[in-house]
Amino acid sequence: MDASASYVDQLESALDTRARWLETVQIPLLKDTLVAYQSHFEGVMAMLIRKGLLREDPYNYEQAFTEIVIPSDDSLPDFENADEVSFRLAAFRRQLKFVSAETSFDLHSLGLARLKKLSALISYINWLGFGEGSTSPTTRVFARAFMKVRMGSDTMASQILKDNEIQIIKTVHQLRAVIAELIAFHRESWKAELRRKVLSQLNLAPQDGRMRKEEAVRAVRRGFGQSMNGKPWYPALSEEVIQEEVGDDGPARKEKILASLVVTATETVKVTVAPEGKPILLEAVRILCRPHEEISTALAVLEENERLLHDSRGTGGWFRRLLGRSGDSEGESRTYKAQYAEPGVPAPKTEPIDFPAFLAETQKKSSLLAALASGKGPAYRKLDATSEELLANFLDKQLNELLLIHRRLASLNTLFQARAAQEKKTTRGIKIELLTIKNAIVKANQRRHEYRDEVKD
Asked: Which pTM does this prediction carry?
């Protein structure tokens, strides 16, 4: 058993080196890539919800998790399945948030059982076989909604989905590669422990023949129960150990295992060298921040117009009915039913807008953009110091949110202007502000495309 003991020493030394590399390089990469995946997926969901193809979770409650739970992927009916898919995707999003923000990421906690669940979660939406021909029922219905926008006439929305899909596929490949490395490490770690605690106590002669291998497996199983009680038992891995000890190709198998655990300089360079393109992203952010004053001006004009129309006929129900507002005279909700045009859809769509909430949220957004617009100050320095991947995610999020703000500003402006014309009142418009905001969105989106091209090259 001297040769075997020498191999165990080499194996454990290689595992120790591999463990340090996984802890310091690959596990942080896994964490960052999961956060990036979540961010890109949220960008896709925000667009599909905004288009009315999917819904937010109707229950909208927070759940506490202690372990990864894979949402259902059972068969769906061919029609009236949007609510069920929305519910499943909401559960999936909660799981992504759980693993990204609340799960411990270290070599010990990321054991084989958890890695198996994490792999299943990442594969819940089959992005590598994405389409209506997918074997996953949830993926098929989700892909149907996705492709309606992706192949639709709204070119900006289509491009946003395309960019997010490209980045998601990239992150899926990265996640699968890192998870595969962690699984391989844990498999060899379990086998090394089996060798040290069980095989060292057995006298396995290097004989051939099926019966000898079966006897060896039974002997190992008995020894496992005595020396590794409480540990998970993996029959396939125990058979691998036996094959490495008594099989004709045992020495070659051992050499291959040791070679697979070596941390090469190429691997280190591969994960530590960051792609170029961060200056393009920062420029895109600065462009997107430029119309912060126009946003504030537009909000002030809309608030002034609302007040003018409200005062023109008092506070009675007539005004609320005229503008399609809900609420009673005591609890003025100031919620307006605003219409907007969806590219490729002949009939206009209607959405309720809680005006005070919209004012508060949009002014908050304007303040954030103002803080970043100068390219100085603590907010911008913090953004400048963030990783390129997270910066790209931040830009995607801001583009999505500013598109929604632009649409709602335009809808409310149209609504107030139409009612003012009926009342023969003179109100201010915000066409110039809307045009400025739109131009910033278009130019920032162009810079984002330049960045995607830079990364692909």
From this structure: 0.64
